[in-house]
Amino acid sequence: MAATRPLLRIVVNVVLDGALAALAVPLARWLAAPAAPLAEAAWLPLAGAACLLLAGLPFRLSLQYWRFAGIGDLMGVAGASVLAALLMRLLQAAAGAPPASPAEPAILALVMLVLLGAPRVLYRRLQFRYPGTAEASEGDAALLVGAGEDADLVLRALAGDRRKPFRVVGLLAQGSRQTGRRIQGHPILGSLEDAPAVLDRLKAEDRLPDLLVVATPDLAGPPLAALLEQADRHGLMVRRAPRPTALDPATRLPNPQRRLELKPVAIEDLLNRPQVPLDRDGMARLIQGRRVIVTGAGGTIGSELARQVAALGPDLLVLLDNGEYALWQIDTELGENHPQVPRRAIIADIRDEARVRAIFETLRPELVFHAAALKHVPMVEANPLEGLLTNVAGTRHVADAARAAGALAMVLISTDKAVNPTSVMGASKRLAEMYCQALDIAARNAGTGMRCVTVRFGNVLGSTGSVVPLFQRQLERGGPLTVTHPDMQRYFMTVREAVGLVLQASVLGAAGDAGRGDALAADGGIFVLDMGKPVKIVDLARQMIRLAGLRPDVDVEIRFTSLRPGEKLYEELFHGKEPPVATGYEGLLMANPRTADPAIVGRAIEEIAAACRGGQVRLALTLLGRLVPEFEHNADGSVGTARA
Predict the structure, then answer these.
(1) Which of 43-57, 243-257, 625-639 has the lowest mean pLDDT?
(2) How would you classify the pairing of strands 237-240 and 211-214?
(3) Cβ pair 35, 98 in contact under 8 A
(4) Inter-CA distances, 505 with 14, 278, 515, 578, Å
(5) What does the domain layout of the chain look like in residue ranges?
(6) Given this chain, do its domains 135-265 and 290-460+492-531+572-627 carry the same CATH topology?
(7) What average pLDDT does the structure give for the chain?
(8) Which of 396, 424, 487, 507 is deepest in the core (most CB within 10 A)?
(9) What is the predicted pLDDT for the residue at 130?
(10) How many Å apart are CA 421 and CA 418, to the nearest integer?
(11) pTM, whole model, 2 decimals?
């Protein structure tokens, strides 16, 4: 039965097209010469139908879906009409039946085009406008925001969705020149900058929509934040339509299986960080065909490093972590996405020097990305000895083992909290930086040996233990959202962007090709990612509440607590006396903090590790303070301001 349905539809198409073509012949003859008798040409309608069906074969006229008719289908109708009119003229000439007028063939082609094309357009229009469900008029009223092309695609996709998740009452364009015009019958009420006035006018007219739908995927940063603010002022929700690439012609069909799914605006969209061009070829040359170890591979940074490294085709990718579940997750993911890449998943603690050395001696890595660390400031404050053993002694174990195994380069992932640190975590990372700086200077001076590349950056959105997942959990519970201080600021970037720039810095540092920055790197320079402008945490909290369709301080409370142990209000990427130096690569800067002799730093690390193993907290912190004199410990969170 199902197999006969397509054939039945083709037969119906043939009958309808033939009947319309037959009707077109006397109608065209009458229009060409109203006084000419029609009875003399009684055989011509059947001939017209035959000519049309014959002319329609190269244009596949009988295979068209009327309800899906588009411009291409109408062009086929036009071609078939012209060809049918020419065939009719030849048939008349052969039969000795002259046309009623010299214009009759042209008129016949036009009449056929109208009679064949109009039902197709009307049927499609009826299918889209009257889908036969009550939902078409009951969906939420929405203003569509974005460029004309994007809005057109969304409107077409909406027309093909029988659920009608929303109904468009107007549009906000990105440019002011479009105001007053229409797209698919919907008026453009103003530009994005006119949003406050447009929403105020609609409210006064009691026509305020229920939500704003962002059609343009590139709308981000301050313009998007301003739109969210206006939506918040009027109690409107803001949602994103799918990207234009997802709105292919198939999604525009009135098929109940196809749906136009709206998504919440992502917090990353508000950062408005431009895409930085990266040297992908240089990364491939660095990674491809080499043995690579990623420590801390189960963490946020480590797992993204593993993903991007795997995509570059290493000879062997070693995933090292002390957490079984996190390691299993990334290993499984890479097995699914990059099955061709040889890999090893190894459970190990970087504080175990013998274990680390044995792994490196066996696998002989050529590149080491060291992301393993304890990074949560309050947790390290509560467990300072563990933080020092992991971040300081563990980094030395990895660096020494990598150098002994003949590695080409080691890349240390550091943090902005290492600058003028007020926490044990920050000071421990600064000491780790110093050791890697010292090793790199020694290798440069000797002209041989492992290069140590240190990369410093701020917070990544969504990382384990960061503020964004915390706010999300608090929102799910209905609030409140807890912020330590109204003036708290942090730098943010996405994890993918951060890791991409880490790999870029690795290319420059390992190859010794950082331009002007390379001269500083010879003196222990540190690569610093350009984090843009810092973000107030309270503003981030307000934005996340708005993105959830709620109102800050009305639907969800924002509660201020106090600075926690080790925290400071403002993070810094550079010490006060180390001005940033451009590297010649967008997104990467160079810092040149003070360095020390590797032997001196190494002995101090041994003393700190011994104090940690002996449970001597005060001694360990005293030794740390001697090596990092700028360490101003905010041990109880009472320090209200920080040097910036």
Answers:
(1) 243-257
(2) parallel
(3) no
(4) 67, 10, 12, 19
(5) 4-129, 135-265, 290-460+492-531+572-627
(6) yes
(7) 82
(8) 424
(9) 44
(10) 5
(11) 0.71
